[in-house]
Amino acid sequence: MTLTVVGINHKTAPIELRERIAISRDDLPETTRALAAMPGVTECMIVSTCNRVEILAALESPDTDLTAFLHRHFGLDPGLLAPHIYQHRDQQAVRHLFRVASSLDSMVVGEPQILGQVKEAFAIARSTGAVGGQLEHLLQSAFAAAKKVRTETEIGSNSVSIASVAVELARKIFGSLNGRTVFLVGAGKMSELAARHLVQQGAGAILVTNRTLERARLLAEPFNGRVIPFEQLHDAASEADIVITSTGAPHPIFRREHGQAFLQRRRNRPMFFIDIAVPRDVDPEVNKLDGLFVYDIDDLQQVAAAHIAERKSQATDAEALVAAEVERFHQRQRTVNVAPAIVSLQHQFEEIRQAELRRVHARLDSLTVEQLAAVEALTRGLVNKFLHPPMQALKQAARENDANRLEALCETWSLPATPDPAAEPQPPTASEDQQTQEKQQSREASAVGGK
Question: Domain check: are 87 and 142 in the same one?
């Protein structure tokens, strides 16, 4: 079984390409099901945000081509996507996932939204039946590592997000946001965060619109904002000095003709669009009109770069913690891999114990029930004590990636061959029966090894 990550992100691909394979939340379940139906894919999930689209999958063979799914599903020429795509396998895939969940691979290092986005993608994949034991175990470990990063390092202090960077850009453009009218288009989490930062910076009137009017009201109320019905979007937009837009629309909602109308109504007073949506909400042609200035998610990287130096030491601490958590994950998996050998050794000793009890059965007939129970407990205790050293040796060899020692131990006790510990450990499988069996093996191994 091979664990693979395939994707593009803000480091490898421009927004023009990212928006062509962006997947809306509404479309994500169907796309995940389509991926899960691909031959060779046993488990999978898809993370799609404004900065990345990534497939995480457990594959029957490393030859399974996940990039072919992207080409086919989105109708892209393979040559267009190839220069921008990255792929990680097995241990590197685990490390990449842990870094993504911990916000070490984000445009704004330390931003808290990515963990929630990964959790949501995982929940959607699980609801479609695309996730089994392998990804379940892996993702829960990634979430635990991300939580540890945020609680044990300073990377999350003075929390920075894409929304806060967008507001910082607006402040730099105007010098001050005092008295400026801001129009929030879209009432999602990004818009809520932007509204909080805008109020802190002294913004004047805040207008809010959303396709669902109730969501717009819920966002506007805490900030004394004014709700604009979505069908009046273009009529109201010209009131705003700054438009921050973040919708899930598949096509631009602000086009060149809208921009021309805004300028006419504003008597050529400048107007700024900060477009943090992928796909983009503002057609690039709008930026060609004098007096209209458009900044998209990639433009925000220049502002975000200022935070990189500030967070360098915190990121270093976080990287070290993630590396330790990745190694801990692999150690646990290697211990799971050696469980069959441990259980086999247990069975060997149990057969010997039972054979010896049968051999002396006639001599035990005169014993009372309490005395028979004492004999049972005594023999079991002796077996556990005899088993403790070899069990610990097997576990230690697995944890330390000592393939030669593992092989020698298995040969000594005529145990089933264990996987090479230097190879990628295999997480629990998706099958319910297999999960139950492995849990039983782990419990039996722990009962002996932990004594």
Answer: yes
Q: How many domains does the chain have?
A: 3
More confident residue, 448 or 111: 111
Coil, strand or helix: which one is 332? helix
Strand order through the sheet with 41-48? 41-48, 52-59, 2-9, 86-89
SS3 call for 252: coil
CB 146 within 8 A of CB 115: yes
Bigger pLDDT: 344 vs 428: 344
* Same-domain status, 375 and 270: no
pTM attached to this predicted model: 0.71
The boundaries of the domain holding residue 351 are: 338-449
Question: 14 and 144, same structural domain?
Answer: yes
DSSP state string for 158-211 = T---HHHHHHHHHHHHHS--BT--EEEE--SHHHHHHHHHHHHTTB--EEEE-S
CA–CA separation, 340 and 79 (whole Å): 46
For residue 391, the number of C-alpha atoms closer than 13 Å in the C-beta half-sphere is 27
1 contacts: CB under 8 Å, gap ≥ 6: 42, 58, 59, 60, 134, 426
Instruction: Give the C-alpha separation, 288 to 271, whole Å.
Output: 13
pLDDT given at position 213: 93
The residue among 295, 291, 298, 196 whose CA lies nearest residue 243 is: 295
Q: How many CB atoms lie within 10 A of CB 152?
A: 11
* Catalytic residue ranges: 50
Burial letters 258-295, b for 16+ CB under 10 A, else e = bbeebbeebeeeebbbbbbbbbbbbbeebbeeeebebb
Res. 115: pLDDT tops 90: yes
Each residue of 376-422: pLDDT tens digit?
Answer: 889 888 888 888 888 777 777 776 666 777 777 777 777 776 544 33
> Which range (3-12, 111-120, 437-446) has the least confidence?
437-446
CB atoms within 10 A of CB 116: 10
Q: What is the mean pLDDT of the chain?
A: 84
Six-digit token string for 309: 């130096």
pLDDT of 243 above 60: yes
Amino acid, res. 325: E
